[in-house]
Each structure stands twice: as C-alpha cells, then as structure tokens.
Amino acid sequence: MTPNPLLGVLFHWLGGLASASFYVPYRGVRRWSWEIFWITGGVFSWLIAPWFFAAVQTRDLLGVLGQVPGQTAGLCVLFGALWGFGGLTYGLTMRYLGLSLGMAVVLGLCTVFGTLIPPIVQGDFADKLLASASGRIVLLGLAITLAGIAVVALAGARKDAALSDIDKKAVIAEFSFRKGVAVAVFSGIMSACFAFGLAAGEPIKALSAAAGTGPLWTGLPVLCLVMFGGLITNSVWCGYLIARNGSARQWLGAVSPVETADKPAVAALTRSPLLVNYLLCALAGTAWYFQFFFYTMGESQMGRLGFSSWTLHMASIIIFGTVWGFALREWKDARPGVRALVFAGVGLLVLATVVIGYGNSLGQA
User: Fold this and answer.
1) Could you tell me the CA-to-CA distances from 272 to 250, 277, 285 in Å, in that order?
2) Where are the alpha helices (DSSP H) in 201-273?
3) Are 76 and 156 in contact (CB under 8 A)?
4) Are 16 and 313 in contact (CB under 8 A)?
5) Quick count: other Cβ atoms within 10 Å of Cβ 63?
C-alpha cells in the first residue's frame, strides 16, 4: 500500500482527540483517591487494550514477539518505563494547571525531544530534514507547532494572571501554577521517551509485516512492550501511594479515611459508586490507548519522514485539549483578547499539521 500522508494526518487528529479526551471521564469518578482511579484506568491503557487490539488486528502476535531480540525488547520496555514517569506526572499536571495550560507546557517540550532526537540518534537527521525540500517543510511545520504551543501557553498564563486565587480554584480545584509548571517540565521531557521506544521497536514492525500483518497495524505489537514499561513505573508509584494512604479498600467501596475521619457516622452514606467508577476508568484508560492505536496507523502513512508523526500527534492533542478546555469552562472568565490569542494558537497548530502533511506528501514523490 502506497503511503498517504494526508490520510495519516487524519489518523493523527483522531489520536489527538482520544488523548485530549481521556482525562475527562476521570473527572466523574467519585470518592476514589487519585492513585486508585489512575492505576485502575492504567490497567486498561497499558495492559488490556494493547494486547487485545494487537491480538485482533495482527498476525501471530505471540510468535512475532517471540522472535524479537532481547536487546530490542529491553529498549522498548526501558523507554516505556522512562515514559511512565512522564505519563504519571502528566495526570498531576492536569490537576494543577488544567487541561489547556497543562497540555501546552508538557507537550511543547515533548514535541521537540520526541521529534528530533530519534533522527539525530539514528544519524540521518541531515539527510531526512536538511537535504530535501520535503524535510525542510517538515521542519517548518515543527517550528509552526512550537509557535502555536507558545501562543496557547501565553494565553493560559494571561488568563491565570487575571484570576484571583479563589477564582482559579473554582475552575481547577487544586490549581498551583508553580507546582504545575515544575511537574509539567519534568513530564514533558520524560514523555518524549515514548517516541524513543517506538523508534527502538522498528524491527518488530518488520517482523509483524513478515508474518502477514497489514501495514496499518504493524506498530501494534510494539505498543504491547512500550506500554508494559509504562505499567511498571505507574504500578510501583501507585502501589506505594496505596500502601501509604491505606486506599486499597476503595476498590471495594470504602471511602477514604481522610474523608470520614471527622464524620464516621456518615461513612455508609458516602460509599463510592463502584460500577460507575470502574466503567469511567475503563473508558478513560481505553481512550488513552486509542491515541497510540491511531498514532501507529498515522505513522504508517507518513513514509520516510515517519518520525514527524510525533509533531502531528502533539499538535493534535493540544488542538483538541484546548477545545475541551473551553467545553469545561476553563476559559469562561478570560478576556476577549485572551480568547482570541487561544484561537490564534489553535489556528497555528492546525496550519502546522497541514504543512507537515504536505511536506510528507512531497517526500513520497
């Protein structure tokens, strides 16, 4: 099948929509501590969904993974574990900064590292990006993406500067700009490791294709390994929090000890809605996985400049994340000029995806 970069852009938009939407169901979880709902959803994100869809859409999944050299598999899991630190703190960023500003800071750093480091390490940066018109256009798209991220982040900073502390916490209950930015910087750098894991898994895609898997799905076995690494990191941290906070009972309906310390008599009346919580976590976790389900489909359509998929992915996430920010009324008190700045940033990001798609299409000629 001949690569179709414009179709790849569409797949990346779908992946961005899934990523920008995954945290929304978590907002409906009631009376569960963060570590409980995060690892519950994570089991779907990093274990159930990757193996289920890879088993359904690829040929001889276990046979293919059995042929993977130990070093290749180890690198995929290692980068996944490092990415896990970014994914772990990504959720904290949403708590402290909200969807719009949190995504802008995290994904800006993640875009630069995740897009440029793989071709640099592989030694073909100049050949792919500097020596051809298509590569230079992709670089232009990356620059436009970063400009769009900066504009969205600037709008978020201006919005937050105009709000009182009370107003900020009315929109984002745990708002903390300093704490949020510190967590976001760490998260953005570590989150780029997912791109490194995908690059390390290129030989696995070849093995899957040789087994008869269609070109749209050869990346799915790689996700099984990279996401397993993320599961390890998140399980260790959430396990520590669960042991420290004694929150494991919440899986069976018990409320947090902190919630009922002063009001033990009402504990029975405030038990968590278990079925709803489990369903919301399953929805959130599966939505998170679908960002990379569509990512691998989009990357398969980008040809020799497939690493630019990371930029497309990041831009798409911020586009839809900003839309969610408006839907959740995070911008309701922003001045008209600030809102116009947001729309300008989103417009730049949309333009960037078109430019990158065009650059990739030139590369197919």
Assistant:
1) 8, 8, 19
2) 202-210, 220-245, 257-260
3) no
4) yes
5) 11
CB 330 within 8 A of CB 33: no
* Paired tokens of 30: 């009631």
**Residue 117 pLDDT:** 74
Distance CA 219, CA 58 (A): 9
Q: Are 235 and 251 in contact (CB under 8 A)?
A: no
Structure tokens at 79: 């980068």
Q: What does DSSP assign to residue 87? A: H
Q: Per the confidence metrics, is the pTM higher than 0.90?
A: no
- Amino acid in position 235: S
Domain ranges of the chain: 5-359
Please state, as a whole number, how many other Cβ atoms lie within 10 Å of the Cβ of residue 161: 9
- Cβ-contact 77, 155 below 8 angstroms: no
- Alpha-carbon distance 229 to 225, whole Å? 7
pLDDT at 267: 47
**Cβ–Cβ under 8 Å, residues 325 and 46:** no
- CA–CA separation, 310 and 194 (whole Å): 10
- In sequence order, the 6+-apart residues with CB closer than 8 A to the CB of 56 are none
- pLDDT recorded at residue 38: 92
**Residues of the chain predicted below pLDDT 70:** 1, 91, 98-104, 121-129, 160-176, 255-272, 305, 363-365
Q: Cα separation of 203 and 297, whole Å?
A: 17
